[in-house]
Amino acid sequence: MKYMKFAIVASFAVLAVGCSKGPSSEELVFRSELYSDLNNIAKADEWARKAIDADASNPDAWRALGTTWVRRNNVDSAIVAFDKAVEVSPDNIPALYALSNTLAAKGTFDRALEVIRHAIEVRPDTSVGHNNEGVILTSKGQLGDAVKSFQKAIELDKSNAQAHYNLGNVYVKQNRLEDATNSFGTALSLNSGFSQCYYELANIKRLQGRNDEMYNYQGLGLLSQNNLGGAVLAFENSTKINSGYAIGYNNTAHTYLKLNQREKAIDAFKAAARLGYADAQRLLAQEKIDWNK
Prior knowledge:
This protein has 293 residues and is mainly alpha-helical. It is built from 16 helices and two strands.
């Protein structure tokens, strides 16, 4: 899971008479995070350690060090650093999120849940905390409680596409396929590039025995990832299964346009138009193309 990023304002060295202090711990953390963003983990680690040397009571310094260990896939060392961040600042929300996420990644779900619930006590009105709680509860198999956590996250922030997606995944596990379809659809309405939603919708259609729609959603997922060749094959599979599937022809046509294969696109648009697909009919009419020929 990705950890929340918090902006840190660099503070400038205060001039003293005849000399100046070195960089503050906050400045050193800022440098560490810059190097982390640049994927220079060695430098990020170096500056995080300097930040700790400058002020071992700075939770952001310990969190920055923990982040470098996460990037190195050393979960145990990351937990030690995040634990120290929480020790020096027990109500520090970024540190609590980082610790909880890392404990969950290790599979230490009970403690991860304890930590995230403390974060929620500190900041009960934050959608992220309730979403993270739901993820841990899902991993523990407590699906009913997970649903409540995701619903609370959505109540606090209806634009939280990740919470809608996570709720959809729990609904699938509960075999509530229509509810899952609605959740994934909402996530896509908030973030049309959320490709995993298309694949989850494809899986739902597979479970429902609607394979033409399954291939169509697979195609949309591939299209969102700019895999045009794979998308064309998926859309064409949808129309092979169901020759009356107008949207499959229409999506095939649009993908051929992206591939600069105009003639194939026109043929697919004609097939969609003959089946009464209004968008294809309008497009062909604009181009003065008779879809009945």
